[in-house]
Amino acid sequence: MTQRLYAPIILLLVMIFLIGPFFIIVAASFSAGDTLAFPPQGFSLKWIAKVFTVESFRQSFAVSMFLAIGGTLTALLLGIPASYAMSRYKLPLSETVRFLVSTPIIVPGIIVGLALLRYFVIPVGLSITLALFLAHTALVLPYAVRVVSASLANLRSDMEEAAVLLGSSRLGAFFRVVLPNIRGGILAAFILGFVTSFNQVPVSLFLSGPGVRTLPIDMLGYMEIVFDPSVAALSALLAFLSIGIVFAAERFLGFSRYV
Amino acid sequence: MFQNRTEALALALPAAVFAALVFVVPVVLLLSEGFKSADQWTLSAYVDFFSQSLNRTVFLRTLKLGALVTLAAAVIGYATAYAIVSLPPGAKGKMIGLVVLPLMISPVARTYAWIVILGRTGIVNQALMAVGLTDEPFRILFTETAVFIGLLQLFLPLMVISLISALENLPRDAVPAARVLGANWFQVFWKVILPLTREGLVVGGTLVFTGSMTAYITPAILGGSKVLMLETLLYQQVTVANNFVSASVIAFILIVMSFAANILLKRIATARNRT
Amino acid sequence: MSDASFLSLDKLSLAYGKTIAVKELDLDIRKGELLALLGPSGCGKTTTMRAIAGLMTPVSGRITLDGADITRVPANRRNIGLVFQSYALFPHLTVFENVAFGLKLQGIGGDELTRRVDAGLKSVGLTAFSGRKTPDLSGGQQQRVALARSMVMQPKVLMLDEPLSNLDARLRLEMRTELQRMQKETGVTMIFVTHDQVEALALADRIVVMRDGAIEQIGTPEEIYNNPVSSFVADFVGFENLFAIRNGKLVAAGGIELDPAGPLPDAAGLAWRPRAIALGAGPFTGTVRGVSFAGGTREYLLESGFGTVKAEADVSVPGYPLNAEVAFDMPISAAAPLHRFG
Hints:
The structure holds three protein chains of three kinds. Chain A is mostly helical. Chain A has eleven helices and no strands. Chain A has one domain (54-257): MetI-like (MetI-like fold), CATH 1.10.3720. Chain A is 76% helix and 0% strand. In chain A, helix 4 crosses helix 6, helix 5 (109-124) crosses helix 6 (128-153) and helix 9 (183-199) runs antiparallel to helix 11 (230-253). The longest helix of chain A is centred in the first third of the chain and has 34 residues, at 55-88. The mean pLDDT of chain A is 88. Chain B has a single domain (53-274), classed as Orthogonal Bundle (MetI-like fold). Chain B: It is a multi-pass membrane protein.
């Protein structure tokens, strides 16, 4: 008897702890009151509407989208060839390369942001936007390499040799045979990279300037000044966006196979 | 396996050079600042750092919270993961999905919710006053407790996922066999489950510990300036005090502790294995 | 160039990093023959095949094909076909697209493409599967697709890596006949790599037995089967009783010497198949330690004063029970003389 109840009770409690706060955020964002509170005071859509009118949110949303899409694409552009070299070639110094492309996952993001600020932005005059772009690309690179490497490992390498023996160049074999077969893995890497970059805070902390800051940093800043439910509304919207993307990916691709 | 080294290097170098230039070089430069004073190699910055009681408090608090969150995540993680792997396949997949789901949501949003829950007029205080346990609202927000709760919620999924994959690889009959041999549940866990899942525990533990130690958002929102942790202290040192040397010291401590946690957990795991 | 050296390997040496896999190999392959590279794993047969295909660059030596030096010609311009052991089909393409892959790269399109791919599919009996994705096919069908994919290219040489090893017994026989038929019809020079002597003996016109990166023996299946030149080849093709010859005596595997039953030939050793051991009478005696029934024959394990002897006798002859003492003979005339031993 006790054993039969064990699983449901544990899982219910843990899920309330993990997911409950998210529902509170969603509920609070429909509040009619002017301060963040639960249970919400009345029902209105005004805070959700307000999110779209705050100029800085719009700007920082654009920055974050640019970083998440551009940074992840760049990371893939760098990461796919590197993964391919590591999985298919006798690569000299392969351990060093592997270490280099995976360190961004080991080192705390705040340190990376600070290092870029200290050595690129301040002395060299590198623009904040570019610094953010470099930082986010570096941050996503390990994920890109890991996911793409995993799908390459599942792909037999004699397929490329077969293509070459049928007259294809090695580069041609990559595009004709390898790429079409790791498309799912690449898309999974893209989504993982996008979500990681979009939600990333520490790396961007030091990298903000006039008109250029990421959305999570902007939200943190807004919270310090105004304590209304608009951040809750924005959080809820973003959460639904992330969940929507992941669900679609899982549904159409079996995303979780790759992560 | 292709033999052409030039081709291999041409493919791998862009990523390696990028990571080296954007990442490794600046970080190493930053870390080296903490060991230098007037172009001399010295540890004086570290001596200075630890001579201030605030810094010592923050350092110990970061370690303590990291350890406590890891311990709590391990205990709750085992209970949750064991419950999940014993579910039928369909329900199991959905549960895993629900555990992973929070990881996709912005940590800012996830942490923000706790303000509503733990604040002076938050749900917890409302409930406590409603049942008459207290007349005055408790101060929960901006305490270590709030940071602990926030970190645990943030990182528990990582532990659960690591332990689920470890438990899935458990030999099917190990637990029933131990039960048949007369072991009670505590003995089963200690003698069978723990030794056989220690790698999952090490992976999960490392993720949770380093995650907690290097989290910024949670201590910033739920701890504020009252409950500084190393990351928030680092931020203050740069933005308020403009002290890059001190920031470098903190950065180095964070990196060392991350690596040390990984090595230590591996040690613990193998030590248990030998007995 | 003559037909006798259509494809020539000239002092070919191959290595993986610092590990030498093949040393100074010389081999002439005739136009239109069906050649087997036979040997245990690690003997260098697959490496040799990969070098011929151009998938690996020789350390030294030359490869000539049809009169041209192809040692430095890249793999995609050699026009050599290879059917991989795993078949290496492209899972994202249909059967038709797989077979059309190489032709399209040559710029062939339209009606000619369709005609040639259809002809290729027809020759392997897969016309009905043209639109299927390859992962949906059975192992045997996948191999036929791989075969058609290579053959539509009209390669100068077609190589096959362990072509029968992934098939079950029935399909194996079917594929064997099909490969022979295809080879006779098209006249393509075919080289296949195998570790299975039965496969090599049944399929090949000529067999190259390899050992430790060098050729141990070249010959027709009959020659290899009946006249192995060395103890290595003899062991590989089923001579289970091997004796070295030293100072006019036979030396068993355990080092025990015995006097031969007659004058010895000028050789380094002698080998008997189990069938060649005569049971019932002779100068030697052994104790039956094992009997197993093998259809038309019984196989015996005899423990003699000089070691274990494997013998085989028709079931029509009365059998011997376990632990029986049996007299036997190893007639010199029934033995294969070996030129190299060890």
